[in-house]
Amino acid sequence: MPEKSVYSANAHLSPIVVTSNVRVEEAAPLVRLSLRGGEAAASHAGASIGAPLPLEPLTSTMADKAAAFWLGPDEWQIAIQEGDATAVFERVETAMADTPHSLVDVSERNRALIISGPKAAWLLNSQIFLDFDEAVFPVGMVTRTLFGKADIMLWRQSEDIFVLEAWRSFMPYVIELLQEASRELEAA
Amino acid sequence: MTQDFRTSAGGRIDRSSPVDFTFDGKAYRGFAGDTLASALLANGIHLVGRSYKYHRPRGIITAGSEEPNALVGIAREKGQNTPNLRAPQVEIYQGLNAESQNRYPSLSFDVGAVNDLLSPLFVAGFYYKTFMWPRSFWQKVYEPFIRSAAGLGKAPTDPDKDRYANHYAHCDVLVIGSGPAGLAAATAAAQSGARVILCDEQSELGGSLLHDRTSAVDGKPAVDWAADAIRALSENDKVTLLPRTTGFGYYAQNFVALAERVTDHLANPDPRLPRERLWQVRAKEVVIATGAIERPLVFPENDRPGVMMAEAGRIYLNRYGAMAGKRVVIATACDTAYRTAVDLKAAGVDVAVIADLRPDPAGVHVDAARSAGIRIEGACVVTGTKGRLRVKSARLGRIRPDGSVTAMGEEACDSLLMSGGWTPNVSLYSQSRGKVAWDEDAGAYLPGASVQHERSAGSCHGVFGLQAVLEDGYAAGENAARAVTSAAKRPKVPAVTGGEEGAGGTLGALPHDRDPARVRAFIDFQNDVTAKDVKLAVREGFHSIEHIKRYTTTGMATDQGRLSNMNALSVASKTLEKPIPQVGLTTFRQPYTPVTFGTFATTARGEAFDPVRRTPMHDWAVEKGAEFEDVSLWKRAWYFPKPGESMHDAVARECATVRESVGIFDATTLGKIEVVGPDAAEFLNRVYTNPFLKLGVGRLRYGIMLNEAGFIMDDGVVGRIAEERFHVTTTTGGAPRVLAHLEDYLQTEWPDLNVWLTSTTEQWAVIAVQGPKARDVIAPLVEGIDLSTESMPHMSVREGKICGVPTRLFRMSFTGEAGYEINVPASRGREVWDAVWNNVEAVGGAPYGTETMHVLRAEKGYIIVGQETDGTVVPDDVGMDWAVGKKKADFIGMRSLARPDIVVAGRKQLVGVLTNDPKVILEEGAQVTAEASPALKTPALGYVTSSYYSSALGRSMALAMIADGRGRMGDTLYVSTAEGAVAVEIVSPVFYDAEGGKQVA
Amino acid sequence: MLLITCPYCGVERPEIEFRYAGEAHIARPAEPSKLTDEEWAEYLYMRTNPKGLLAERWRHAHGCGRFFNAIRDTVSDRFVTIYKMGEAKPDLERLVVEAAQ
Ligand SMILES: [Zn+2]
Fold first, then answer.
1. How confident is the model at residue B559 (pLDDT cuts 50, 70, 90)?
2. Domains and their CATH numbers in chain C
3. Does B934 have pLDDT greater than 90?
4. C33 and B252: CB-CB below 8 Å?
5. What is the pLDDT of residue B151?
6. B144, B233, B604, C58: which sits with the fewest CB atoms below 10 Å from its CB?
7. What are the chain B neighbours of C28 within 8 Å (beta carbons)?
8. Mutate to test the interface with B, among A90, A108, A151, A185 (most CBs of B within 10 A)
9. Confidence check: pLDDT of B131 > 70
10. What's the complex ipTM?
11. Chain B within 8 Å of A167 (Cβ-Cβ)?
12. Chain C residues closer than 8 Å to A145 by CB
């Protein structure tokens, strides 16, 4: 495991859900790059961020304060905890200069939630139809899917920690439904 | 009120916890663990409802969800009534208020009962016969009559205040039903290591084991064995136990919907709990263990309160300590009723007689009754009952060898318990699309081949007797587990004493010695369908069981006929003189029992029905008092009324401000796609009508996108950011559609192109600043970009900074004025907006909304896709042939522009429309005609697409699509309005600054 | 809710993650302008609409975003086989024979 996950709770915001067995927190801002292209581009990009880009479907790779997610056969999302999106963009773009590809800064497009605790999977299953049994959805798995009616990206960072990303305007919907589903945990 | 019919001891109720409740306003007392039905019975109450059609008094018949009569409405507060709850499923709690249904003014005196006297009018098909003619009577006479007289229960009047939850779950083995077969199956599957969900519609798991007083399993009383098995399951963390949870829908690929009732049984539910939860389960294997349902006997007056199923009598006695009566007659064709007799007798109830249809009843259960000293009459049939609101006596008859019946006299009783044998409950198997097969030996329809990964266990597929049912359940659980895991273990099946299979059963109407014209024997209690009705339907030509069902309404009760179907089928079969399998069985459909709308909706209501998308500047608009409109999922500021302003005032002021000074507009919702790669220009050249290969870096181009049929599907401005990078904008609503359209061509037609698409709609906040003072307003905030027209002309894009924030600055106009669209990273949108607004405000500018944007663009004759276009419009129709690259070899939709129907004369074309009276604002969608009062059936020439008041023109204006419109300039045509046709002049669609000098200034 | 296997993700997902995209193997003509009106209409509008096996396009719209092809039985609503874009269309007659066995 890398020393520090690319996702950390945004210390400036209070948690969205806190119960004895699940927490939902907004992640701190980070740099997100959408990479489209072939494996050659992916290999150059991986070298530039210190984490080889995953080539197996629905898998992820992690480096210190960075992660790369397989989203499609020619599509990856790179996440880096670093202040300056432009600088990161230039670094990765330069590394792929001679290879056809598309690199787009989408740092601001998504917001991320960190859902953690023994009831994290249960909470997500209120709106996500995936099977979170570890044999089916192991640690490190990442996928796009639906949360209710919102498109999301979901990554299992560890057994009990999930990261959910959605386009920013969909996030209030996701948060409202997570809060709604968590209310009964407080009662129980 | 005393509980006169409560046993002195026993049952699963908590006698130390009394529970007070009301039924029809009258106070009663029961115990914790009682259902409403058991508590009423303990208080001596059988009369609980009136029947649907004849309003006949009706009593509790069953102890399960198939209950046809004891339907109640329960409202925790006014306006929140839940109707049609089945009393045997309603758990009482302190303060429960239940109301009976279908009666007025009271249960014991009901004016609708006059229908019973008029019953000859209400025969089979009475709905069809009575309410058919004259047609004009339907709305005013028949429908109100039916609505007031009929209908089960009262719908709630207020929006549902309860919350409903949803949960998706996966398992290896889903077991539906927790009686002996289900418990055994779940145990076997769990012991094999499978992930198991076990659900049961009852409040407590265990099914028939909970009222089995005489059997032993593994040397333990059956009920104790069940408790141990449930405890073992509950300690297994791969097992989920769901009591109060009905498996109501079996769908494709083992997708099964369950409805869990979470709080209905609680006196003071925690408001944080949902009332119900919808479980959407995907199971690798399903075990259906839904048991069998005891059939009523069809004899005259079999619907009198006090007449009940024999097994229900045993359930109420053993599980709830409630006696059906103090002197009971048992009518049966099946051994299992003898178990009821024995248990009742042991509890001190006077069992007057067991009237058995069979001439020589025999077997272990019969012997037990005999040795308990209970009188048994063979070849004996009930031929009627007496009593007004409760049975007082049963009329018995002797069945002669020739089938005729002679009267035996009357037997006084306060309850009559009946058993016609058992019908395997094949509802869920049928829902799984399996075809039931008639089993002659069992005298029942049984599940045939499995269509999905499911198997039935226990009496729902014709296996009876506790030992056999347990063995069957274990085998089903083991086999289900074996199908999903190699580690399946062969479980040890415990040995059973007692609980032997009860033989016997009958179908259809019983013989009697009464006048057939004067008596009624009910088949479907809830819908008041008698044996006579079914016979009549057959005589009238309804020979298919599906037709008979719909004509008589038999089997259309809340239990879908689980109680009544086989008797109806038997009567139809005998009348048709066809064997039962040739008559067929109606299909069972989802849901198994009624499910509340809230459970289907779950959380998708109110704000959470759909995602509501808001821009980073939304709150600013709220603070400024904006009205909003919905555009796809987005909330867009519509207009910004100042205090006292009407919408018309506000829009006129906003328009004038933009034209004369400057306006600020939130354009964030526009779709944005980053098109990147060596072949980006080539790709755009193929998907837009316009040429894109030679668009310079830093330049913008307005583009039109067609579908392959040649029709306009979207438009937008495209900026070339770099040689291989384009910033494409789409309409707000069209963004997902356009991206899917482009991906389609890229992935499937031109996979050789090195170009990729990334949605950046939400990466950017977009601030439009439009008007003569636009440049002055933003200039002080911009760094690194020369804003002079010479350096940055109309339709160009530059990268730089604004307020220190990186920006893609577009110089473009959708208003006809000079203007900019400032793209900044979304999280910085609000701060940049605030800074720009400061400057806008300082020069007397204003924010404007989508309405003003629409007016301003209409003054310029700019189309809005979806308003001027409707999916059948090509560029030339809207005067945009100029945007079509004539020298291009191909683009999507190009070939279609040469289709005969596209090049033909007479197509509708975009024109401007000015009413002769400048104050008249036409309605959008209004028809345009050549004459003021055209003859009927004259086709319209076209229709108005956009219509506004224009402050720039000082009058109304409109756009319209009119046949050969460009050839009609200056013509007078007519437009229909609510006040009649008005004369209009056809003009150019460009009303304002036709030379276009303003936007390039 | 049907389960559909995405050949790119290699997993089975509920139908709601996917979008139907019409009949498969109808290639866009290389030079549409050379087609007669009848030929163009044939390409634009004419589809086989069989009762039985149909080659059709689906997109894993809420997943990896890829279009792929599938053979589905329009009678039973069962997916017989699923394959990536660019792979050859299976022999439907052979699939019918196999299904019968
Ligand atoms: Zn996929």
1. confident
2. 3-100 (3.30.2270.10)
3. yes
4. no
5. 57
6. B144
7. 708, 749
8. A108
9. no
10. 0.97
11. yes
12. 13, 17, 62-63
Alpha-carbon distances, residue B776 vs B190, B661, B663, B784, B816 (angstroms) = 75, 10, 12, 16, 17
| C40: closest CA of chain B, how far (Å) | 8
Query: Tokens at residue C44, please?
Result: 């634009």
Residues C55-99 have pLDDT tens digits of: 999 999 999 999 999 999 999 899 999 999 999 999 988 888 887
Q: Where are the domains of chain A?
A: 17-28+109-187, 31-105
Q: Residue B210 carries which side chain, given as an amino acid letter?
A: L
Contact C6, C68 (CB under 8 A): yes
- CA–CA dist B542, B547 (Å, integer): 6
CATH numbers and ranges of domains, chain B: 14-117 (3.10.20.440), 166-292+424-489 (3.50.50.60), 521-587 (1.10.10.1100), 666-856 (3.30.1360.120), 861-1000 (3.30.1360.120)
Those residues with Cβ within 8 angstroms of residue B980's Cβ, 6 or more apart along the chain or in another chain: B932
Domains A17-28+109-187 and A31-105 share a fold: no
Chain A CB contacts of C62 below 8 Å: 144-146, 151
Are the beta carbons of A177 and B676 separated by less than 8 Å? no
Of the pLDDT bands very low, low, confident and very high (cuts 50, 70, 90), residue B141 is low
Residue type, B405: V
Domain at A17-28+109-187, CATH class:
alpha beta
Q: Residue A158, Cβ neighbours under 10 Å: how many?
A: 12
Mean pLDDT of B509-527: 93
Mean pLDDT along residues A60-87: 93
Please tell me the CATH code under which domain A31-105 is placed.
Answer: 3.30.70.1520
Contact B170 A133 (CB under 8 A): yes
Which of B689, B748, B894 should we substitute to test contact with C (largest number of C Cβ atoms within 10 Å)? B748
pLDDT at residue B743 is higher than 60 = yes
- Helix (H) or strand (E) segment spanning residue A147: strand A142-147
- The alpha carbon torsion through B131, B133, B138, B144 (nearest 10 deg) reads -40
- Ligand 1 centroid, distance to C20 Cα (angstroms): 14
Integer Cα distance of B491 and C39 in angstroms: 67
B314-347 pLDDT, tens digit per residue, is 999 999 999 999 999 999 999 999 999 999 999 9
Helices (H), B103-179: 114-117, 126-130, 137, 143-149
Contact B760 A104 (CB under 8 A): yes
**B532 φ, ψ (degrees, to nearest 5):** -60, -40
**Structural element, H or E, at residue B835:** helix B829-842
Give the type of residue at B961: M
> Is B761 in CB contact (< 8 Å) with chain A?
yes
Contacts within 8 Å (CB) and 24+ apart, B926-932: B926/B975, B926/B976, B926/B977, B927/B975, B927/B976, B928/B960, B928/B962, B928/B973, B928/B974, B928/B975, B928/B984, B929/B973, B929/B974, B929/B975, B929/B976, B929/B981, B930/B973, B930/B974, B931/B974, B932/B974, B932/B980, B932/B981, B932/B983
Residue C32 · residue B890 · CB < 8 Å: yes
Query: B663-666 and B846-847: which strand pairing?
Result: parallel
Could you tell me the pLDDT band of residue B122, with boundaries at 50, 70 and 90? low
Ranking A133-147, B27-41, B77-91 by mean pLDDT, the lowest is B77-91
- The β-bridge partners of B759 are B673
For A16, A150, B167, B549, B578, the CA distances from B609, given in Å and listed in that order, are 21, 11, 16, 37, 52
Q: How far is C93 from chain B (nearest CA, A)?
A: 24
Give dist(CA B533, CA B554) in Å, integer.
9
**Beta partners for residue A3, in sequence order:** none
